[in-house]
Amino acid sequence: MEDVVSEVIKKALGESKIFKNREALACDYIPNRLPHREEYIRKTAELLSPVLRGEKPSNIFLYGLTGTGKTAVVKYVIKRFTEHAEKAGIDFFKFSYVNCRNEDTNYRVLFKVGSDIGAKIPFTGLSVAELHNRLREYVESKRMIVTIVLDEVDFLVKKVGDDLLYRLTRINDELYRSKVSIIGITNDVKFVETLDPRVKSSLGEVEVVFPPYDALQLADILRERAVLAFRENVLDSGVIEYCASVAAREHGDARRALDLLRFAGEIAERESALKVTIEHAKKAREELEVNAATEVVRTLPYHSKLILLSLATRGGFAESTGSLYLAYRKICDILGLEPLAQRRVSELISELDMLGILTSKVISRGRYGKTKEIALGIDSTVILKVLSSDTRIGEYVKLLKNDRNR
Question: Which of 101, 160, 215, 335 is the most exposed place for a label (fewest CB within 10 A)?
Fold first, then answer.
């Protein structure tokens, strides 16, 4: 065993024959050029440009599906503005980038903002109101123009409400020599509609919608990153096009394309191959799909798991919501659980559809009306494997597997 580990360590510490800079394929890497996002870079920069004159820019909300370049564009513009400020000796405007999935409480968001702009704030021990007051006083004392980027702001609001958003949008009413603006980034185009009317009126935001990339655009992005990431003549022909086409079919997600290309390179590296081939890319796709599905299913609410279990036991298909609900009720009876109402189960099915774990399609049956066919979007064996690790239903799943094997 020691020899195996030593071999892995030696291989990991040695010079890669595939990569020269694998970080160039990371989702958070900001290159010197963002292909096919020039229009959005210009628009974002123009909207933020008042900070260069010491004025408050408009609040901005960026919408678009995952992997459409929203975060990359904002970080790119901030990077360029910051470089200009350093060269010009300007220090009156500051940016704070907050990922609301990581900083998922009001206190942690304000603490991160304070850290980014240089305020000395205790990590714990204050109320949110007191922390907000200290932050406001610090900004005012420094005569700052502060822009706060709240990435995945919808996640924070869904978890703890929109109180912090309201505070930040109204903070300028209490500032005289300083200004604060907000850039919100979200995948949910209906996010603003869910906010309290007072927050909506305070935002006064400019909306920018990012469209998905198509296959040709994704291929351009991958080619530019590949030059930075891989050694010469390592990529076989067709690998970039394959990764781009897969990601284009899945909502034009550039992150997905980059992950696929990077993982294909890592598989080739593990196999000690001299080139990254389409076969490596296909293996990467299979592994990434299983890993992503596994993580999503594992973190689902209990009754959502039972719905998936009900569908998996029917071969991954149900001819109607009603038939799936009957199967779900049967499993609840076996496990001694109180089933949810059919309406709530229909809502959970819609949520699972949005996550891509299953697909539901309305079918017309002529004079017999319409029905909704439901099918798993993931192989039922993968679903059962993940659910078998759940302590509450694992034994039941194992019994089902044993019955199938007989």
Answer: 101
3-state SS class at 213? coil
Classify 185 as helix, strand or coil: strand
Q: 356, 69, 391: which is closest to 209 by C-alpha?
A: 69
Is the predicted pLDDT of residue 13 greater than 70, yes or no? Answer: no
Structure tokens at 300: 């689902």
Cα(229)–Cα(31) distance, integer angstroms? 11
Contact yes or no for 349/324 (Cβ under 8 A): yes
DSSP3 helix / strand / coil % (the chain, rounded to 5) = 60, 10, 30
Quickly tell me which residue has 């494997």 as its tokens: 385
CB 256 within 8 A of CB 246: yes
CA distances to 34, 114, 134, 182 from 138, rounded to whole Å, are: 35, 9, 6, 18
Mean of pLDDT values over 112-134: 90
Specify the pairing of strand 370-376 against strand 317-318: antiparallel
- Chain mean position to CA 388: 27
For residues 325 and 86, give the distance between their C-alpha atoms in angstroms, rounded to a whole number: 62
DSSP 8-state assignment for residue 70: H
Say if CB 64 and CB 211 are below 8 A apart.
yes
pLDDT at 241: 96
Q: Residue 327 falls within a domain, yes or no? A: yes
Same domain? 177 vs 224: no
d(CA 402, CA 400): 5
Q: What value does the mean pLDDT of the chain take?
A: 88
Residue 304 lies in a domain: yes
3-state class (DSSP) for residue 276 = strand
Count of other CB atoms within 10 angstroms of residue 100: 26
CB 255 within 8 A of CB 66: yes
Is residue 28 included in any domain, yes or no? no
The CATH code of the domain that includes 291 is 1.10.8.60
Coil vs helix vs strand at 220: helix
Task: Using alpha carbons, list the distances in angstroms from residue 353 to 17, 191, 320, 370, 378.
Answer: 41, 19, 14, 18, 11
For residue 259, pLDDT over 60 is answered with: yes
pLDDT of residue 2: 56
pLDDT value at 43 more than 80: yes
| Identity of the amino acid at 97 | Y
Residues 219 and 200 in one domain: no
